[in-house]
Amino acid sequence: MSRLAPSILAADFNRLGEQIKQVEQSGIELLHIDVMDGMFVPSISFGMPVVASIRKESSLFFDVHMMVQEPIRYIKEFIKLGADLITVHVEACKDVAGTMQQIKAQNIKCGVSINPETPVKAVLPYLELADLVLVMSVRPGFGGQKLITETLDKVRKLAEIRNERGLSYQLEVDGGVHLGNLRDVVSAGVDIIVAGTAVFDGNITENIRKVKEVIEDAS
Ligand code: DX5
Ligand code: ZN
Q1: Contact 66, 60 (CB under 8 A)
Q2: Does the Cβ of 197 fall within 6 Å of ligand 1?
Q3: pTM, rounded to two decimals
Q4: Which of 21, 97, 100, 174 shows the greatest Cβ crowding within 10 Å of its Cβ?
């Protein structure tokens, strides 16, 4: 069954610790952490000090999404601070395989991501190295955008390829997921569903309960 990974980009940073506690108490296992550098994407979110402070308080699995140009520069640091999985963008690395190998060499999980306009063929050379493939369903950089439905075709394609090649990477979708399109996302074969606004806007516990209910129902 698909799992939900709340994205703290949509959290109230004034109450971040408290909100992560709520997420944890709702039976969530994964926390999606969006790191943006103002270069690969137009916006800047947060970086190492935030990850370090939430790691002290949380035992959730940290799914770190690096929207950063040449993330290889920061991998060691994020692993030291407690990342459990680091996802890098094919569009952001000169040496994608080298970057992924560096992540794997330190015994954490490694993900590779493609933007909405990037075709599946761009990740084909890296699938053997990937524990996770993140298909961006919005242009990265901001929360609260509309999901681009066509990106779900890439999820279906990547699920087919996984079968054909006998691989076991997880498929993750990120951006614009809400109760209204959740069924489509689940039925495309997504393993990990990232949601920011749909989790943090309003009552977190209730939001998570509703999302989980739809996932269960659609599975
Ligand atoms: C977008 C980020 C997403 C974003 C999702 O660049 O990678 O993780 O926070 O937010 P929503 O669910 O609000 O689209
Ligand atoms: Zn993300």
Answers
A1: no
A2: yes
A3: 0.98
A4: 174
* Alpha carbon distances (Å) from 16 to 9, 21, 22: 10, 9, 10
Which residues have beta carbons under 5 A from ligand 2 (an ion)?
A: 34, 65, 174
User: How many angstroms separate the alpha carbon of residue 145 from the centre of ligand 1?
Assistant: 8
Residues 38-77: tens digit of each pLDDT: 999 999 999 999 999 999 999 999 999 999 999 999 999 9
Q: How high is the pLDDT of residue 86?
A: 98
Does the annotation mark 153 as catalytic?
no
2 to 28, 68, 79, 81, 104: CA distances (angstroms):
12, 27, 25, 27, 24
- How many A from CA of 35 to the centre of ligand 2? 8
For the chain, give the number of residues.
219
Tokens standing for residue 39: 């270069």
pLDDT value at residue 219: 86
Query: b/e string for 76-111 if b means 16 or more Cβ within 10 A?
Result: eebbebbbebbbbbbbbbeebeebbebbeeeebbbb
72: left (phi over 0), alpha (psi -120 to 50) or beta: alpha
Ligand 2 centroid, distance to 193 Cα (angstroms): 10
Q: Are 156 and 188 in contact (CB under 8 A)?
A: yes
34 is known as an active-site residue: yes
